Amino acid sequence: MSASDSLRIAFLATSAEDAQIARARLSELYGDTPPNEAEFIVALGGDGMMLETQHRFLGRNAQIFGMNRGSVGFLMNEYREEDLPKRLIAAQAALLHPLRMRAHSATGTTHASLAINEVSLLRETRQAAKLRILVDGKERLSELICDGILISTPAGSTAYNLSAHGPIVPLDANLLPMTPISAFRPRRWRGALLPSTARVVFEILEAEKRPVSATADYTEVRDVRRVEVREDRSITMTMLFDPDRNLSERIITEQFTV
Predict the structure, then answer these.
(1) Which residue of 4, 29, 48, 119 is most buried, as measured by CB atoms within 10 A?
(2) Is the confidence at residue 4, as pLDDT, over 60?
(3) Is position 223 annotated as part of the catalytic site?
(4) Residue-wise pLDDT tens digits, 45-83
(5) SS3 content of the chain, % helix, strand, coil (to 5)
(6) Is-same-fold flag (3-97+236-254; 99-231)?
(7) Which of 247, 243, 248 is nearest to 88 (CA)?
(8) Where are the domains of the chain?
């Protein structure tokens, strides 16, 4: 028996029929170890499933290998049943760090959450949001009028950030893109690229008239007054990719897709 044949693998899947069928088939072929005892976690679904799995194992630095059984699979590998243990052994690791959000609400409470993709601020009503932006304690914009704004991780730069016309950032660039959503004033401001060490503060102006929510991936806080965001390097996440489809290559390729 080779080392790859004795790997302890846990299979997690979405409720979608294709994902459930794949989980049953792979479990039959390779066994199914409880996640807390597994060497590798195989997530079956789309990018949402990868995000959910990363959140589930945050702080454990689990080795997570995704296979696409969903509609969007940018963060997933191709689904194949054969030679899975060998693929896991040969896979290349992408090491990522989440964003930590501290959102202070109108009630005086503080909510702390982690984001693997992005932290976003969005207006709650028909009134545009008014925000003041500070980076490392220095005011950078005294007033931004917009529908919202977001800060993403490099891995998340191809998600909501890209849809908002933000830049795609390579994994090893040590940069965090900050991208406005429908900026009205200053109209020509297109955002910024910040060093990964930056500590960003958003202060909500005219908050009673122009309420704003803050969301770290899928954790939302309503009626915020102040939101602090920074990269948390004390936490490392590991995603595994086939060598011919590693995440760094995908991010570069995405920039040349027309």
Answers:
(1) 119
(2) no
(3) no
(4) 999 999 999 999 988 878 999 999 987 778 899 999 999
(5) 25, 40, 35
(6) no
(7) 243
(8) 3-97+236-254, 99-231
> What class does CATH assign to 3-97+236-254?
alpha beta
**Beta strand extents in the chain (DSSP E only):** 9-13, 40-45, 63-68, 92-96, 99-105, 110-115, 118-123, 129-135, 138-146, 148-152, 175-181, 192-195, 200-205, 212-216, 219-221, 224-231, 237-241
123, β-bridge pairs? 212
Structure tokens at 170: 């390579």
Side chain identity at residue 59, one-letter code: G
| 194-242 pLDDT per residue, tens | 999 999 999 999 999 999 999 999 899 999 999 999 999 999 999 999 9
- The predicted pLDDT at position 84 comes to 97
**Which of the following is catalytic: 47, 83, 223, 232?**
47
pTM: 0.87
DSSP 8-state assignment for residue 219: E
Tokens for 192, please give them: 């910024």
pLDDT for res 5:
59
In which residue are the tokens 């086939």 written? 242
For domain 99-231, which CATH number applies: 3.30.2280.10, 3.30.420.10, 1.10.150.20, 2.60.200.30?
2.60.200.30
Please state, in angstroms and as integers, the Cα–Cα distance from residue 159 to each residue in 48, 81, 95, 109, 176, following that order: 11, 28, 18, 30, 13
3 state SS of 59: coil
Asked whether the predicted pLDDT for residue 245 surpasses 80, the reply is no
Peptide bond into 154 cis (omega under 30): no
